[in-house]
Specification:
By secondary structure, the protein is of the alpha+beta class. It is built from three helices and six strands.
Length: 98
């Protein structure tokens, strides 16, 4: 990814909670895949996700272009996009880096 590409991130069009704290994402440019958020479960507000039902309450906020949960947690789509691009360039599972 070039420096110019890093500043232009495609908009998120869909997301869905999957098993084992995986988050499936699809962006306007066709990039899609899963990132693991399991590494966040022991950090502050993310502990709410230890209840899998809470984790499943995810949605795209089209106004702020973030991934949001009913509990008030929001994740930046630029970070998620970067993680998916990195995943596509490696054969190893991706974990969100915050």
């Amino acid at each position: 990814m070039t420096e110019k590409d890093q500043t232009r991130v495609s908009r998120l069009t869909a997301c869905k909670a999957e098993a084992n704290y995986q988050l499936w994402l699809r962006f306007e440019d066709g990039l899609e895949g899963c990132v693991s958020l399991e590494n966040l479960l022991s950090i502050g507000a993310f502990r709410r996700w230890q209840d899998a039902d809470e984790f499943s309450k995810v949605a795209v906020d089209e106004v702020t272009d973030t991934v949001t949960w009913q509990s008030g947690i929001c994740l930046d789509t630029q970070v998620l996009y970067r993680d998916l691009v990195a995943l596509k360039h490696s054969a190893q599972p991706s974990s969100l880096v915050v």
